[in-house]
Amino acid sequence: MNEFSDEEKDGLYKTIFSRRDVRSGFVKTAIPDEVLTKILNAAHHAPSVGFSQPWNFILIRSAATRSMVKASFDEERILAAGRAEEPRRSKYLSLKLEGIMDSAVNVCVTYDPTKFGPFVIGRNSIPETGVYSVCCAVQNLWLAARAESVGVGWVSILSNDTLREALGLPSHVVPVAYLCLGYVKKFSKRPDLEETGWLPRLNLEDVVYYERWEQRPDPQ
């Protein structure tokens, strides 16, 4: 059995608990190719349903492409604001929610359901497991980046139609995550949306049930 030392375990948990969704504070320092490769390789070693490895990683450095994506963000941000009432609308519009033009590189992580043919072990009953697999790759990428002191921000306020056009995606390929990667001035001690009071961190006991939905353990 390949055991982990206490120091190695501490490093894992430190990475998990200090990971942040970074939207601001990017610095003008390029990510070395060997570091970016290590991060992408960690993502590529995520678990996947039926070992289908249904992801691809599109690296985006072009200012023109980023500008197209940023325009989509700006449009979708205003549309989303219309669903909120004051004062929440104004607070939402005041938040910095992307680093598309500021980060060193953008990465679009996609899902290709056609890899290895139509039959994938484990995907028949729950087709969504393909997308879930890509999300596992995103989490691996995020944690590896944090370990390398690289910030990552997931931009979900976007039109997938715009991403398809900007990146030339085939019709069957689904854009799952649009990520902004770069070195940052600092990593916040708490998530930005917790720091700003947008939402609180839930207690662990509030999200753990036993045996059935909303069933709590018997009081001792």
Automatic annotation (TrEMBL):
Recorded GO MF terms: iodotyrosine deiodinase activity
Coiled coil regions, renumbered to chain: none
Keywords, comma-separated and alphabetical: Flavoprotein, FMN, Oxidoreductase
UniProt-listed InterPro entries: BluB, Nitroreductase, Nitroreductase-like, Nitroreductase/BluB
Gene3D superfamilies (alphabetical): NADH Oxidase
Residue span, Nitroreductase domain: 17-183
Matching PANTHER family: IODOTYROSINE DEIODINASE 1, NADPH NITROREDUCTASE
Family: Belongs to the nitroreductase family.
Protein name (Swiss-Prot/TrEMBL): 5,6-dimethylbenzimidazole synthase
The organism of origin for this protein: Geodia barretti
